[in-house]
Amino acid sequence: MTATRKRTKQTQSLQERLLTSADKARERAQSMPPGKPRDMLLRRAMQDEVTSSLTDWLSAPGYRRPAQ
Fold it and tell me: Region (Disordered) spans which residues (predicted)?
């Protein structure tokens, strides 16, 4: 018996989705009082932005994978 997965076609690129997620996290964090939940949202926003930048860098035409 195999389980079927719900497959969705992404309409936005990974970078766009990450930046949108970062923006939403920052907006939510602005309305929260200082504390751990707010810090976690800000940290998540930073991670999403860094991941987006790394993905851009790795997909650049001049990038070559290191030899193994």
Answer: 1-38
**Do residues 50 and 22 make contact, with C-beta atoms less than 8 angstroms apart?**
no
Token output for 26: 């920052």
Please say whether the beta carbons of 49 and 41 come within 8 A. Answer: no
Q: Are 17 and 10 in contact (CB under 8 A)?
A: yes
Spatial separation of the C-alpha atoms in residues 56 and 49, rounded to whole Å: 11
Q: Tell me which residue of 66, 59, 62, 63 sits closest to 14, measured CA to CA.
A: 59
Q: Give pLDDT tens digits for 2-51.
A: 888 888 888 998 899 999 999 999 999 999 999 999 999 999 999 999 99
What is the C-alpha separation between 58 and 42, in angstroms, rounded? 24
